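sry for the spam today, last one i promise. struct tokens for design, 177 residues
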């Protein structure tokens, strides 16, 4: 366990959520056919925050879903512990919808690939966009986010920890060196 450094606080995170909400509305020319799906766990909380922020701006309810990707991961056979399967809830037909996939940290891109595979089991979206709070680099797959809260280049030995109020913690992002 090394040093912990706070990279973002509650205010920073609120500003980022607000900016990304505006960017989503702008890029999609409104909210029609939009569905936001968070990747378990942190992505789900952030997806709900984005939907609430969009509602504040546009006065429209956006459908929010949650996606558990643990059984779609490509390392499932080589991980030491069995994955904890969490809830997947896609409350709308995603076929022909614009899906904004939300995750807390974008790292190798493998979780996003797994999420896209999982989503495809629910239908054929018109488009999948990606929103992340933190992009830390080190991609192993050709995946990039459409909406990035903050780019934080890290070394492989460092880790990013996103702490959220929904999990009983103070909103903040920490870098562990």
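last one done:
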């Amino acid at each position: 366990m090394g040093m912990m450094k706070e990279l973002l606080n509650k205010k920073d995170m609120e500003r980022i959520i607000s900016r990304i909400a505006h960017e989503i509305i702008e890029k999609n020319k409104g909210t029609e056919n939009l569905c936001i799906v968070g990747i378990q766990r942190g992505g789900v909380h952030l997806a709900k925050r984005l939907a609430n922020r969009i509602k504040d701006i546009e006065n429209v309810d956006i459908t929010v879903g949650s996606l558990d990707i643990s059984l779609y991961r490509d390392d499932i056979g080589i991980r030491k512990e069995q994955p904890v399967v969490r809830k997947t809830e896609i409350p709308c037909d995603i076929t022909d919808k614009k899906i904004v996939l939300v995750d807390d940290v974008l790292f190798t891109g493998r979780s996003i690939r797994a999420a896209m595979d999982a989503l495809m089991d629910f239908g054929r979206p018109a488009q999948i966009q990606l929103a992340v709070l933190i992009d830390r680099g080190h991609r192993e797959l050709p995946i990039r986010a459409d909406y990035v809260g903050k780019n934080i280049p890290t070394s492989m030995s460092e880790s990013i920890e996103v702490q959220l109020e929904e999990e009983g913690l103070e909103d903040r992002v920490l870098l562990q060196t």
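DSSP finds three helices and eight strands in the chain. ok im logging off now
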